Amino acid sequence: MKGRGLMGKVAVFSYPYFGHVNPTVSLVKELVDRGEQVYYYTADPYMKFIRMEGVICRSYGDVIGLLDEEIPIRSTDPIEILKLLVPHKLDKYQRMTNLLIERVIEDEPDYIIRDCESYWGKMIGIMLDVPVTCYITTIALNETIMDQHTDFFVRNVLGNPAGQFTLPVEGTRFSEVLNACTRELSRPYSVQYKAIDAFSGADEFNLVFTSREFQPYANTFGSDYLFLGPSIRKEEEDGDNYHELMSSGTLVYISMGTVYNDCLPFYSKCINAFRDNGWQVVMSTGQRINTADLGVLPGNFIVRSHVPQLRLLQMADVFITHGGHNSTNEALYHHVPMVIFPQAADQFAVSGRVEEIGAGVVGNSRECTPEDIADMTIKVLTDPRYRNSCQEVGQAIRNSGGAKLAVDGIFAFLNGQMLQSTDTGCL
């Protein structure tokens, strides 16, 4: 095994979507700066973000169709969800492993770093008998949260608004029930797959791109989870500078992200909520919407398929968002309170945490009216406690250890150690 600070080779298995690739850029740069040879596996469109001296990019090939395959989950029952989710995920992981294994063997990595969604990295690590570190690009989960905060897990992870689940046998733990089901489902794949693996990272050592202050139930995590804080992008160089908005009074910025943004009815509601009310509104609709379908726009609206988000957040008074982890932390970093309408995935847990710490409010994009949107926005604009909470968490983000702490943690792990609270100040 390679020693800390000695040149080594690492294979990084990304999950090829911007919100998963972006946090790894600074991590990879830090690894290269410390003399590591990095083999970075991703899809072709994301290689431009990671190309740098010391990095060899490896293409996944044409796999986006495979990774984008939707799972038709219409139940909120945990067991029914696992019955659909686990075979689908493991089949995908096995196909990716078979696709990549020969190339990885040729690279001869000393260790592996993998996205929590790229479980094939763990499968390959087991096959090659090399250490594996998992990185989590959103809030982390563990079995203690499953068992001690079951309502949180059922509501925010499994999508059951009631947050309730009746154990089949009284006295058993929720994680035991889910793991028993997962063991049976994963048996044909010859892997030791646990229920937590279907929802988060749970390897021997895990990096979390979340500040400890933002992580729900942070005290349930040990030294095998290292909280780095989010990776905040550098400001975009392209696009309008929007400087004229700095003196335009109240500025509302609206974006539903880059994935679950096919939200034409919601965008129309926003237009009606703020039509000619004296505020300036900038709305990013993404590539799935034809802006002509929004009709004639009010004079106080600027609507684009893409805007430079970091530039807008430096000027915005409030951010109406889907609650994606990257967008949420960029807003906190710039002290912008949020009105959140989560759409899918981790956005329910992230938005719940934002509301819990007092940095914003949460609504339902399908059920809300334009009046609801306007009222929620006025609430976070006029109550200074929302911005104050953003400032507190934003400062914690700025003080986080980031990529340097991550590589310190990886090297300690490779030497059979774990960073303790005296080493990091944040565990």
From TrEMBL:
<dbReference type="InterPro" id="IPR010610">
    <property type="entry name" value="EryCIII-like_C"/>
</dbReference>
<dbReference type="InterPro" id="IPR050426">
    <property type="entry name" value="Glycosyltransferase_28"/>
</dbReference>
<dbReference type="InterPro" id="IPR006326">
    <property type="entry name" value="UDPGT_MGT-like"/>
</dbReference>
<comment type="similarity">
    <text>Belongs to the UDP-glycosyltransferase family.</text>
</comment>
<protein>
    <recommendedName>
        <fullName>Erythromycin biosynthesis protein CIII-like C-terminal domain-containing protein</fullName>
    </recommendedName>
</protein>
<dbReference type="GO" id="GO:0008194">
    <property type="term" value="F:UDP-glycosyltransferase activity"/>
</dbReference>
<dbReference type="Pfam" id="PF06722">
    <property type="entry name" value="EryCIII-like_C"/>
</dbReference>
<feature type="domain" description="Erythromycin biosynthesis protein CIII-like C-terminal">
    <location>
        <begin position="290"/>
        <end position="394"/>
    </location>
</feature>
<dbReference type="GO" id="GO:0016758">
    <property type="term" value="F:hexosyltransferase activity"/>
</dbReference>
<dbReference type="InterPro" id="IPR002213">
    <property type="entry name" value="UDP_glucos_trans"/>
</dbReference>
<keyword id="KW-0808">Transferase</keyword>
<dbReference type="GO" id="GO:0017000">
    <property type="term" value="P:antibiotic biosynthetic process"/>
</dbReference>
